[in-house]
Amino acid sequence: MKTILEMGRSAREASRFLMNASTNRKNEFLLKLADALDANRAAILTANQLDYDEASALTPAMRDRLLLNDARIDGIIRDVRHVAELPDPVGECFDEMPHKDGLKIHKERTPLGVVAVIYESRPNVTIDSASLLVKSGNAAILRGGKETIRTNESLMNAVTEALNAVGFPEDCVQCILSPDRALVGELLSMDQYVDMLIPRGGAGLHEFCRKNSRIPVITGGIGVCHIFLDETADMFRSFDVIRNAKVQRPTVCNALETLLVHQNIADAAIPDLCEYLAADGVIMCADPRAMEILERAHVRSEFYEEVRDEDFDKEWLSLRLNVKVVDDLAEAIAHIQEHGTGHSDSILTEDEDNANAFVAQVNSAAVYVNCSTRFTDGSELGLGAEIAISTQPLHARGPMALRELTTYKWVIRGDYNSRK
Fold this sequence. Notes:
Distance between the termini: 56 Å
CATH architecture of the largest domain: 3-Layer(aba) Sandwich
Strand order of the largest sheet: 10-9-11-8-7-12-13
Low-confidence stretches: none
Largest sheet: 7 strands, parallel
Radius of gyration: 24 Å
Shape: globular
Number of strands: 16
Number of helices: 14
CATH class of the largest domain: Alpha Beta
Structural class: alpha/beta
Order of helices and strands: HHHHHEEEHEHEHEHEHEHEHEEHEHEEEE
CATH topology of the largest domain: Aldehyde Dehydrogenase, Chain A, domain 1
Number of domains: 2
Mean pLDDT: 94
Helix content: 40-55%
Strand content: 15-25%
């Protein structure tokens, strides 16, 4: 394997190649990649099964993210093909403006350069990163976790096959396949070659990257997501949305972790909702007011337990759901502002004023009205795939796809003008 320094140098050279690659050639790479993934499906699944079998010590959430099957590979292939269909942001001109001296001024989208992605468990990130970064004209240095090395190696074989098929340098997408953690430290120091770092993993990984990186870091992906059940909400329809947000895939960052219930409907809603979700194995972690309601309604005690204060800051990634009774919309918003991670938060309401107030005051990357938080996903929002979900206020927020992987430059055209 190349040294990390050699990978950085070759990635920089590859980024200069990709900066000038045509949209047609980049799309050809994506279609070849989709075909290579399908053709290498058996080898990928075999490698993934070996990784999965050895990962018994991981949490259920991490093991779920590690697992590939035919349906998930089909989804990955579908996303790659979708990225090929999307407009290429590179070279897009915008914000044209006049100038008193006759200058023609606009901004033009350009690739970032070299992007490093460090991730845990999620082998799909290997392909999402490769497809989005190449399409947006960026070179990639990838580093997955030690628990998915075999899978990543197999996926990278498909990436390299596709790069070779269209005459792109193999260094356009490189992957660190050694489990040596010291290599991560070396990567974080390569600000002369790497323009942006994207960590995909738990809070520990994000904190490590923020503290140790000399490269600008895009943080996000930690989702303590909320739904506020307003007193005006359609109760019957709301239960289905809450169930979807919690149960459909509880191990992902856009799954619901805390439900806030207006006090005026708490007595009617909480017992029925607890029993409704219990059919899926959900344990309700109730605050004192919710506990009192559940006990008074004689709900079976195995369906709920008392919440701890620190649980409101926890990303459960499991079938546990915090439930808190709040006096009004203002208290719900205050709770989200204190405990939320800026990922995805939703209000269920029939009151348009309450909906507008929620949208205005909840400053998360994705704010929903009468929707499940599970829609915070690049594929669901029409982006084809995503490389990360940013929860920071700078550069990009929410699912990051093609446009979010570019920057821009000012282009000023004149007629031999000099400033007066």
